[in-house]
Task: inverse folding
């Protein structure tokens, strides 16, 4: 029988090792992800196609408004690829953040009745968002190829690092907000606010150089220290920088961007640690607050 | 059904408790407001004390359960029996004192809590089995038995939202009785389905018990509890009122009424 080996050891029920426990629950995690995907698209004619429709519409609208009306495409060559690579990163962030924040409240029947490591729910939301991210990244790849994408190993590594930074950062924030959301449903509104702010406070529509010109040094440092800014820049380096016309041009990436990327990864890991701490502190109260 | 027999005689030779509850208190705070506006208004009027009310669901409860015992937790509504069960399952934490358990705790805290209406019966069996701590191999091995027990094999690939409530409960119960935890918790679900199915469920629970499974049952149906439990624990307003054989406990509760 499962668990027999340690069945005589007494332990306090309801205490888990948090995220470290999740790999042992791989099978359930897989089923939860599958369930969430199924439920999301129930009764929907387009189904998973929505993951293409939404970003495609966004891209067209922003390209017209920013690229054409505000003429940003004259400053930034291959502006479509630039714009979309940043948008894909931000969309990934927002979806993870939004879903993880709601994950405990949405799974209230389970959280209140049966004990499972509660981190399973935010982590399954992360995976669901990742499943939605992949087709967007695929479209981005095709777009980049059209513009003569010739990546080296460094560009591919930047993509992996970018996904890690954005995924970890949003998971860390999501753990925090998921716990707060149980106490006060205001958390979900905060997330919407943050989602809007990060879109404009990362170099998605504009180039980093505009920020550097306009902002004093100390503000530039604050701007760059946002891990999401580095996340977006890593996506630029992966998809936009190696396209023809951009490749080999000086000043494509901001100064010290590699060091900032390292800082971003570190910052994302720290956020996960803080998120886990906040989550654990409130976890004992979840069942009675829901 | 090898797994249902005492897996390791050594577990029983030492007769160590598998559940220990030491002097446990559980207090619920009933908050009357969640908005900042109300909070500020109440504070300014000096009514901060009225912002919340506390309610002691468990007060200094101690209890030990040994392997293979079947314990009925009895009490009137609000006496704290369900809260105690939630502390043992780990869903809630005590405010003071300590709860300790050995092995995997699972069961029927609420039948079908992990079921999703948009998934088919088959998918729900897998999802719920995994939630109750079964491994993939275990569910695959027992899948046919689970479906056979539920007697709804014809509808197993239908989405659960099309099920009648009886069918739904049958399937949920079947998964739970095959989940083979070390400690099986049962909360108020002895009224599952029609008469014959209820009888079958009780028989199955008794069979599990005879196979050495530890049972903790909360129910208001005293006659059914008598059928499956040997020991009875009565809670009264969060206090342990008595602990003895199931017949003594039922008498105690009936007299108090």
Result:
């Amino acid at each position: 029988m499962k668990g027999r080996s340690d069945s005589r050891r007494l332990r306090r029920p309801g205490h888990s090792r948090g995220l470290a426990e999740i790999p042992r629950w791989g099978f359930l995690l897989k089923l939860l992800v599958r369930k969430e995907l199924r439920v999301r698209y129930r009764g929907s004619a387009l189904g998973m196609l929505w993951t293409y429709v939404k970003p495609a519409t966004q891209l067209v609208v922003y390209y017209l408004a920013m690229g054409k009306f505000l003429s940003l495409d004259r400053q930034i060559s291959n502006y479509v690829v630039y714009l979309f690579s940043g948008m894909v990163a931000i969309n990934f962030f927002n979806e993870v953040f939004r879903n993880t924040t709601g994950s405990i409240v949405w799974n209230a029947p389970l959280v209140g009745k049966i004990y499972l490591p509660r981190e399973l729910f935010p982590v399954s939301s992360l995976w669901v968002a990742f499943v939605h991210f992949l087709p967007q990244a695929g479209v981005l790849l095709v777009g980049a190829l059209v513009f003569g994408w010739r990546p080296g190993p460094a560009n591919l590594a930047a993509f992996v690092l970018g996904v890690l930074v954005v995924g970890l950062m949003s998971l860390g924030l999501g753990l925090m907000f998921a716990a707060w959301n149980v106490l006060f449903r205001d958390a979900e509104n905060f997330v919407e606010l943050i989602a809007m702010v990060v879109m404009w406070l990362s170099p998605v529509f504009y180039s980093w150089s505009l920020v550097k010109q306009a902002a004093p040094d100390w503000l530039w440092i604050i701007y760059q220290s946002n891990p999401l800014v580095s996340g977006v820049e890593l996506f630029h380096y992966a998809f936009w920088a190696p396209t023809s016309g951009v490749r080999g041009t000086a000043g494509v990436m901001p100064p010290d961007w590699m060091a900032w990327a390292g800082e971003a990864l570190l910052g994302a890991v720290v956020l996960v640690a803080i998120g886990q701490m906040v989550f654990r502190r409130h976890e004992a109260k979840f069942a009675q607050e829901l | 059904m090898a797994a249902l027999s005492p897996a390791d005689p050594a577990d029983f030779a030492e007769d160590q408790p598998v559940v220990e509850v030491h002097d446990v208190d559980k207090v619920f705070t009933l908050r009357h407001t969640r908005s900042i506006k109300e909070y500020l208004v109440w504070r300014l009027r000096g009514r901060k004390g009225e912002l919340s009310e506390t309610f002691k669901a468990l007060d200094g409860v101690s209890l030990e359960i040994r392997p293979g015992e079947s314990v009925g937790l009895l009490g009137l509504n609000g006496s704290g029996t369900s809260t105690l069960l939630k502390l043992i399952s780990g869903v809630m934490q005590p405010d003071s004192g300590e709860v300790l358990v050995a092995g995997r705790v699972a069961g029927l805290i609420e039948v079908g809590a992990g079921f999703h209406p948009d998934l088919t019966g088959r998918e729900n069996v897998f999802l719920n089995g995994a939630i109750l701590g079964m491994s993939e191999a275990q569910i695959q091995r027992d899948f046919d038995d689970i479906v056979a027990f539920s007697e709804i094999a014809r509808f197993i690939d239908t989405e659960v939202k099309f099920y009648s409530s009886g069918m739904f409960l049958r399937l949920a119960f079947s998964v739970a009785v095959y989940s083979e935890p070390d400690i099986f918790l049962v909360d108020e679900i002895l009224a599952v389905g029609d008469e014959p199915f209820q009888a079958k469920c009780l028989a199955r629970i008794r069979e599990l018990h005879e196979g050495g499974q530890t049972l903790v049952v909360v129910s208001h149906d005293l006659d059914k509890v008598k059928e499956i439990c040997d020991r009875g624990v009565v809670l009264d307003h969060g206090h342990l009122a008595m602990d003895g054989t199931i017949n003594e406990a039922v008498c105690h509760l009936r007299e108090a009424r």
